[in-house]
Amino acid sequence: MKLTWLLIPIFFISIHSYAQNKVTLSGTVRSKSKGETIIGATVSVDGKFSTKTNEYGFFSLQIPAGTYQLVVSYVSFTTYSDTIRASGDVVLHVRLDDAAQALDEVVISSSQERSLGTPQMGVEQVDLQEVKHVPVLMGERDVLKVIQLLPGIKPAGDGNSGMFVRGGGADQNLILLDEATVYNASHLLGFFSTFNSDAIKDMTVYKGGMPAQYGGRLSSVLDVKMNDGNNQDFNVSGGLGLISAKLNVEGPIQKDKSSFLVSGRRTYFDMFLKLSSDSSINNNQLYFYDLNAKLNFHLGDKDHLYFSGYLGKDRLGVGDVFGLDWGNTTGTLRWNHIFNSRLFSNTSMIYSNYDYNIGINSGTNKFNIYSSIEDYQLKQEFQWNAGNRNNVRFGLNSTYHTIRPGEVVANEESSVNDIFMQKRYSWENALFATDTWKASDKLQLTYGLRLSAFSILGEGDFYDVDGEGRVIDTMRYDRGEFVKTYLNLEPRLAASYQMNDYSSVKGSYVRNTQNLHLIANSTAASPTDKWIASTNVVKPEVSDQFALGYYRNLAGNRYELNVETYYKTMQNQIDYRDGADVYNGNNAIETELLYGKGRAYGIEWLLRKKSGRLSGWISYTLSKTERQIDGINNGEWYNARQDRTHDIAIVAMYQLNKKWTLSANWVYYTGDAITFPAGKYIIDDQTTYYYTQRNGYRMPDYHRLDLGATWQLKQKKRWSSELSFSLYNAYGRENAYVIEFQDSKDDPNRTVANQISLFRFIPSVSYNFKFK
């Protein structure tokens, strides 16, 4: 931890004192047509001093007293320019007009631009204008699926919205919606994500080197921010597709002062099922719905209040025999306060809940299985402009977790006994501070430190387990009693050196810890996978990641080339004993688990064309992910479930004319690492397979071509509409979803492998509209 102590003197060295004739220019940048704050707008003074707006549209910049030309710009908005006279501190509230395209101009332009100078590495921003053109399954615009086309971010496969980032598991990604944790970001068993793109304002994913205000996961942070709602005019937009319908309504409560947003979406598979005359089909259920809502109130020049919420539910039912429903509920209350022109504050109270319920009705056996994870969180963050060379963020985060691992409640006639697994309580706290220091015109540093404390709380029984997985001691704790507290220092360091106007190199180091773990012993993610917290036996996972990168703008900034390489070590990785059963109602889940270490390394390329009739990107990732755990594969290194050698994505969008936009994407990746049987034996005429090497085999390689087209029907001042067409898996590749091993019907001594595939030639069409 020597690096931690080196960061402290750097902090004090870098904070300079400034001459007394300096003044502060501060304010906010908003859209003139909607009143929405603009994230990442560039504020420049005479081309000598510049900064960007934060996630709430606020900026602060120190300049010498004098007269200057102010320029505020953001892609897809008209640049604002004005002369300012600064003899003292100046507060400005800038509103940018939407850029008006010339009638004969046909051009696509990405609103996401990577800064060569900033030290932040491993970050990707999703352009929501591009999302609507990328062809996806069933025509449902899905931001999570688009993210998985970027380098270093691997899809978990067909029928799965999970993702693997730089060798991490699906549970090692922190997914935030307006600061609230989303524990399961999938609908319909993973075919779609929980995020309705019509309600999203900004989406950023950090693959490494994440700032110190983020923590709690090893691999990545996906930070999603909802639209605030139009405080200038009422807007209604929506869409109707083959499987779903959506509606978005927003407008002012009091013009310029407050606004609302309500966005809803529902699928209607179940309505088609009811058309069947077969009672075994028309009584089934298969649908999801979600609702996003937000209110925001401008309380004056220094205060802003936001309330946002999300509710999403899935329902899968087979008549009266089986039912499964699961979903997320989140709520965030935020208060922005500007103490002065250099100090900005955000205070958030956050609620998050994920639960599932399974109902089974078989003869006299009627019972329900329920599980949930619930969080209450308080977050306080400050942003301090310590000068044009220093931007400091610091604060604290406190979260109270309640986990109900599972309970079974049966009726009196049922032969199934009630099972109540112990609730687990924990309290997670963190202090963090980070500073971005512009050491010179070419060199910038970001350094920070996060101190995390995870306290395991009673009530309940806690266990000591020997090396064979047997409980050797049981300890009882009362409600609220501290069982154990894990303290971890998590240093963050990143540096960038801008070689010239069009290229730079960067390097970073980050340590992360994780105290919530997803337990599953199947190859595919399921809504019923269990979350557990660290215990006296299950220790926090820890990762250390080093990364280097080269970044270059090409052809007058129309193209960008990025290459990043990384090496990550992981401690206290969790895997399962051979033959483990994590769903047997055992309170001592530790008896089924083994612990060891992991490593992941790779190199990522991204070539992006950002403007013109043709835009898009090519990404390629070459990587390796391994685990070493005593008790698995004789203690030797073995492939992790998410190990894939090659991962390629090609995405293209072409603006044919003012009416038509064409698109396509092609993906290829190495087959998943998987455990197949090495042999079999017969016991009482029943075939039993035995397994040797963990993840020692591969599924067949995966590849797929998707095609899309958008037809602009009407484009008027107060009304617009379009038709979107897509063809998923255009050349009908039968990609393996599951491979099952069975005895041959002709020769029981021979084993046959049957491949199950999900999607071939899936066409879709959807109608989208907007009026105000």
CATH superfamily of the largest domain: TonB-dependent receptor, beta-barrel domain
> Alpha-carbon distance between the termini?
57 Å
Largest sheet: 22 strands, antiparallel, barrel
Which structural category fits the helices and strands?
Answer: mainly beta
Number of domains: 3
In DSSP terms (H or I, runs of 4 or more residues), the helix count works out at 5
Overall 3D form: globular
- Named at the architecture level, the CATH assignment of the largest domain is Beta Barrel
Question: Which band does the percent of strand residues land in?
Answer: over 45%
Count of DSSP strands: 52
What is the CATH class name of the largest domain? Mainly Beta
The CATH topology of the largest domain is given as: Maltoporin, Chain A
| Residue windows where pLDDT falls under 50 for at least 5 positions | 16-20, 101-111
Short description:
The protein is mostly beta strands and 772 residues long.
Plain-language structure description:
It is a single chain. The chain has five helices and 52 strands. A hairpin with a 7-residue loop joins β50 (738-743) and β51 (751-756). It folds into three domains: 2-96, Immunoglobulins (Immunoglobulin-like, Sandwich); 113-224, Ferric Hydroxamate Uptake Protein, Chain A, domain 1; 225-771, Beta Barrel (Maltoporin, Chain A), CATH 2.40.170. It has 772 residues and is mostly beta strands. It is 4% helix and 59% strand.
